[in-house]
Design a protein that fits this description.
Helix content is 23%, strand content 42%. It is α+β, with helices and mostly antiparallel strands. It has one domain. Strands 1, 2, 3, 4 and 5 form a five-stranded antiparallel β-sheet that branches. Strand 2 and strand 3 form a beta hairpin. It is rod-shaped.
């Protein structure tokens, strides 16, 4: 009986010690006041760089440029067993795109904030 109890405790410890929860972010949060200062047809590329700093990515498009700023948020949960592992990873991003015309003036601003709705889901199968 004692051996069975020790075996049950050992198996339970293996299951509990095999759980992993983690969260990570990449990039800085966006400041809504800074984004509001960027006006279509008025703000220059130099002004954008002063307010937001260097972009994470610059995409050339037919003589024009697109600045991309982003922030990623990830949440993961895992059950790590000796033979098989189960994990679920959720990643969402906030993206700010600023499109400049050939003269270096803002032509369009597109901002999407999705990281606030990121769920933490441990169960790796379906919803």
């Amino acid at each position: 009986m004692r051996r069975l109890a020790h075996s049950a405790i050992a198996v339970a410890v293996l299951f509990v010690m095999g759980c992993s929860f983690s969260r990570g972010t990449f990039g800085d949060e966006f400041n809504a006041d800074q984004i509001a200062t960027i006006k279509k047809g008025e703000t220059s590329k130099a002004d954008v760089l002063t307010v937001l700093g260097a972009p994470d990515r610059v995409l050339p498009m037919n003589g024009q440029e697109l600045f991309q700023y982003y922030r990623y948020d990830a949440k993961a949960g895992s059950l790590l067993l000796i033979i098989v592992n189960f994990a679920r990873l959720n990643i969402k991003s906030d993206d700010l795109y600023i499109w400049f015309n050939r003269e270096g003036i803002v032509q369009d601003v597109i901002f999407g904030k999705r990281t606030e709705r990121l769920k933490f889901q441990f169960w790796p199968f379906g919803e």
